[in-house]
Amino acid sequence: MTYRIALCDDEPAQREYLTNLVRTWAAEAEVCAEITAFSSGEALLFGKDGQDIFLLDIEMPGMDGIALAEALRKTRPYSPIVFITGYDRYLAKGYDVAALHYLLKPVVREKLFSVLSRAVEQLGQSERMLTLEAGGEIVRLPLREIAWVEVQGNYVTFHGKETHKAKMTLAEAEARLDSRFCRTGRSFLVNLHHVRKVAKTEVCLASGEKVPLSRGMYEAVNRALISNV
To answer: Rounded distance, CA 24 to CA 28, Å?
Structure first.
C-alpha cells in the first residue's frame, strides 16, 4: 500500500527538511510513501487528492493550520493530522480536530518517525470491524464509527452512526475493542478519536453527546487522549 502524505509549511527550508525526513522514515520503515509539499493552507485544500496523512504547520499567513485542519475534517474525518508548531499554546485546539499529535519545532527525527508510524497504525485500525449478535442479527461495525459504549444491566450499547445493543459485560466489550477506546468510569467507554473536550465531570464528543466522567478519571483520560489521538 502507498501512503500519500501531505505536508504544509510556508517556509521553504522547513518544507525541504520535513520532506527529507519523511523520505528517510519511509525507507527505514520499508513503507511506500508519496509525499506532496504545499506552501499554504489554501494550496493544500485546492490540490489535495486522496492524501492519507497530513503534517501541518500552525502559524501560516492566510489560512492557519487549525483552520486548515477544520476544513480537512469535513472530507477526511479519520485521516491522521499532525500539527507542527514552535509553540505549545495551541495544544488545546487539537481536541476540536482530533489531532494525532503535536511536534514542536525544531522537529526531532526520532519523534517524527514515531508519529508517522503511529499514523500508519491508526489508518490500519480505522478498518477494523466488530462483529456482534444484536437484536437477533449479526452486525459488523467499523470501530472508527463507534463513538462511545455504555453498559446497563446485562447489555452493552454501542453508540455511533447507528445504535446496537448486545448481551455482554463492559469488560467483554472492552476486550474486543482496541487502544483508541478508554474507560471514563465503571459503565462507559469512549472512542478517543471522537473526543472534542474533556471536562471535569464529562467527556464531550464531536457529535455533541456527553459521556459521564467518574471522579478520579480526568487525568487518566487526558493522558490516554494525548498518547492515542
So the answer is: 6
pLDDT average per 10 residues of sequence, the chain (229 residues) = 92 97 96 95 86 93 93 83 81 70 92 94 78 85 91 95 93 91 96 90 93 94 78
Buried b (16+ CB within 10 A) or exposed e, 39-72: bbbbebbeebeebbbbbbbbebeebbbbebbebb
Grid cell listed for 87: 509553540
Q: Please tell me the pTM assigned to this model.
A: 0.61
Question: For 16, phi and psi rounded to 5 degrees?
Answer: -65, -40
Strands 101-104 and 155-160: unpaired
Does the bond joining 77 to the residue before it have cis omega, within 30 degrees of 0?
A: no
DSSP state of 91: G
The DSSP result for 103-167, as a single string, is: EESSPPHHHHHHHHHHHHHHHHHTT-EEEEEETTEEEEEEGGGEEEEEEETTEEEEEESSEEEEE
Among candidates 77, 74, 119, which has minimal Cα distance to 98? Answer: 77
